[in-house]
Automatic annotation (TrEMBL):
Localization in the cell: Cell outer membrane
Record-given protein name: OmpA family protein
Keywords, alphabetical: Cell outer membrane, Membrane, Signal
SUPFAM superfamilies to which the protein is assigned, alphabetical: OmpA-like
PROSITE patterns recorded: OMPA_2
Domain called OmpA-like: residue spans: 245-366
Signal peptide positions (record): 1-20
Pfam families, per the entry: OmpA
Protein's organism: Microcosmobacter mediterraneus
Length: 366
């Protein structure tokens, strides 16, 4: 009775745990399920910014003159007496030789500098799950840690020019020019016999304004630049469970080959990835860890770097085939996880070294 009660408590606790974590309620025996959390999706948008304002440029068209002729009286008419002729005196008569005008002087536009700060990548956050190593429990879910990670937004300063004052003109007055001419006027009239003495005239030339000074306007267009920003398109964080073959949770060897001391994939290796790993990723939302290893020959640090480059090559190829990089993890282990005794300074055959030069993959929680 006590055992039945205890089993009933465990059964209720198990059902509650499954429901709380969203696990399938009727799983198939022999099947494994991994937790998949949808990632944030981003998109790039282009924004056009004004970096230099439009302004007006002015230039002065000077005034033009024309010459006109005028007939002026230089000697008045008079009468002459036979016995007593008239006497004259000369006086200066002033006249306007050149009219005044207003010249225009251009005051150019002045500018300032400023900048604006734009968010080019938004602040993001989300849950990350980590399976603790050396888990003592048979159920790996007992060793899953959830960490809420927050990444700050990224900003960029964009400088631009501002219009402080627009172009204008100042009026500069130019004074008129005066002159004079000599005129004889009667000082003493003639007496006795009167003789008519006709008036005398002369022609003078003077300059008058034909077309007044003006300004010519030219509009300088604004300048723009385009800034590319990354914005959040679709918020992730939705948790689902994907059914996978249980053997995919353990490291599976990919028969991927590389050129000597190179991380470049051969065409045969790409076909292996297309036939083996690509269908798993396209038919589900699971995440995959790519693990690359080397044999013990060569420098340890070089082997570690080379294995990481080779794992990155597989990830980059999968991304080129349409798989999101957020679902892929590349890890290079160098010669730290040998499958046999062929460590440093141990003589082994080429075939034994070959077993250590491998690339593996396994399905992981994301």
């Amino acid at each position: 009775m006590k055992q039945k009660l205890l089993l009933g408590v465990f059964a209720i606790f198990g059902i509650t745990l499954v429901q709380a974590q969203g696990l399938p309620t009727n799983p198939e025996p022999g099947k494994c399920y991994v937790k998949c959390i949808t990632k944030d999706e981003f998109k790039e948008v282009e924004e056009t910014l004004q970096t230099y304002p439009a302004y007006t440029k002015l230039s002065v068209v000077p005034a033009t003159y024309k010459t006109v002729e005028e007939t002026v009286l230089v000697k008045e008419a008079t009468k002459k007496f036979v016995y007593v002729p008239a006497t004259y005196e000369t006086v200066d008569v002033a006249y306007l030789k050149k009219e005044s005008r207003n010249d225009l002087r251009v005051v150019p536009a002045s500018f300032g500098r400023d900048s604006r700060t734009f968010e080019i990548y938004p602040k993001t956050s989300g849950w990350e799950y980590k399976v603790l190593e050396d888990c003592p429990s048979v159920n790996k879910e007992d060793c899953v840690a959830a960490c809420f990670v927050e990444y700050p937004e990224q900003k960029m300063d964009v400088p631009y020019t501002t219009l402080a004052t627009d172009a204008s003109t100042n009026s500069i007055p130019v004074p008129e020019q005066n002159a004079s001419y000599k005129k004889r006027v009667i000082k003493t009239p003639a007496r006795m016999d009167e003789i008519e003495i006709p008036a005398e005239y002369a022609t003078i030339k003077r300059q008058v304004i034909d077309v007044p000074a003006s300004t010519r306007t030219e509009t300088v267009p604004a300048k723009y630049t385009t800034v590319t920003r990354t914005v959040l398109d679709k918020k992730g964080g939705i948790t689902t469970w994907e059914e996978v073959e249980c053997e995919l949770l353990n490291p599976n060897v990919l028969p991927v080959f590389y050129e000597l001391a190179s991380a470049r994939l051969t065409s045969a290796s790409k076909k292996v990835i297309d036939d083996t790993l690509l269908p798993i990723l396209k038919d589900s939302n699971v995440s995959v860890e790519i693990m690359s290893h080397t044999d013990s020959r060569g420098n340890d640090n070089y082997n570690m770097s080379l294995s990481q480059q080779r794992a990155n090559s597989v990830v980059n190829y999968l991304v080129s085939r349409g798989i999101s990089r957020s679902r892929l993890r590349a890890r290079g282990f160098g010669e730290s996880r040998l499958t046999n005794r062929c460590a440093n300074d141990v003589e082994c055959s080429e075939s034994m070294h070959q077993r250590n030069r491998r690339t593996e993959f396994r399905v992981i929680n994301n």
